[in-house]
Amino acid sequence: MGVTGSGGGSPRVVVPEGAEKATVGAGCFWGVEHLYRKHFGDKGLYDAHNEALLIYYDPTKITYRQLLEFFYRMHDPTTINRQGPDTGNNYRSGIYFHNEEQEKIAKEVTKQANDQWYKGRIVTEVVPAGPWWDAEDYHQKYLNKNPWGYECPSHFLRPFEALEQK
């Protein structure tokens, strides 16, 4: 869980004190990373690695809830071990929390998205984050370096109404 590759990877970015991290899995990691960078790149996102995606962010600019609502908008959380044509358990939908507060928020947002957007069909797993390995260098920012590279067709921002806060 949280594995991005067989080891190696790029050197860790210097993460400012006070940064928090979020880990999500939404299938085809190049597209997941690309969409998060595109949407949050100038809004307090420090770094992101993928397959699941490990995100370092500034909690004074972006909330964990915002990251998770975006997660449910940008992929299909209703298919088991699949995103578009990509199949296998490495393409499962998952939120991997790092503390009790993240667990609470992840379960709340999942329930709200399931009720309001996906009508009871969400199959996303919400479990503790496990060990982490960075993907190899050529995977990092892949779609920035290869703009015509493969991107899963199920990765796009869905135009849902905002989730109702309870």
Automatic annotation (TrEMBL):
**Lineage: superkingdom:** Eukaryota
Protein's recorded name: Uncharacterized protein
Q: What is the lineage of its organism?
A: Eukaryota, Fungi, Dikarya, Ascomycota, Pezizomycotina
